[in-house]
Design a protein that fits this description.
Largest sheet: none
Number of helices: 10
Order of helices and strands: HHHHHHHHHH
Mean pLDDT: 85
Shape: elongated
Helix content: over 70%
Radius of gyration: 18 Å
Length: 181
């Protein structure tokens, strides 16, 4: 557990604790995390444990032709679920980062919107850039709005879009306060 705490923070340690108690979903989340961090032997073990615990998705994933792509998509799915669960935004950010770092455009865009909504402009610009590189259609507008680098589009529209994203995020998450991450 100490290794997972050091490698993946409290999220990793918490998941190990649940997985060791027989939670197949925790094993599957650990598969996603370890696979996307290139810890392949551990990823294989976690997937095996999830399948052995009766998780149907884990059984299907054992034969998946593109496991890294599947893990990236699952990271995004977990992030969106955590984001909508209320006070689990730090877990959403953890999984959005994991998916975004592996080229998931929507995960990178959502993470940028979260950071923009919190006033973390540098982080927002970084993730808007990643989302744009991954092909997200609105990401370059968010990047332009933050950095002021206009590439020929309408800067007022970009600023409006960014302001709307930030306002939406603050409205959706205002009940959690700023200390959840």
């Amino acid at each position: 557990m100490r290794r997972y705490l050091r490698w993946f923070g409290r999220t990793g340690a918490r998941l190990v604790r649940h997985a060791e108690a027989g939670d197949a979903q925790a094993c599957l989340r650990l598969w996603v995390i370890t696979l996307l961090h290139d810890r392949l032997a551990e990823a294989r073990d976690w997937l095996h444990q999830a399948a052995a615990a009766g998780d149907d998705e884990a059984v299907r994933l054992r034969a998946h032709p593109a496991p890294r792509k599947a893990a990236t998509e699952l990271a995004y799915v977990y992030a969106t679920a955590y984001e909508t669960e209320g006070n689990k935004i730090s877990l959403a950010i953890f999984f959005y980062q994991l998916a975004g770092r592996h080229g998931h455009a929507e995960a990178a865009f959502r993470l940028a919107a979260i950071h923009a909504g919190r006033g973390h402009q540098w982080l927002a610009a970084t993730w808007f850039s990643r989302a744009a590189d991954a092909g997200h259609p609105k990401a370059s507008g968010g990047f332009t709005a933050i950095t002021g680098e206009n590439s020929g589009g309408d800067l007022d529209d970009d600023h409006t879009m960014l302001a709307e994203l930030a306002r939406e995020w603050r409205q959706e998450h205002s009940r959690w306060g700023a200390s959840t991450v």
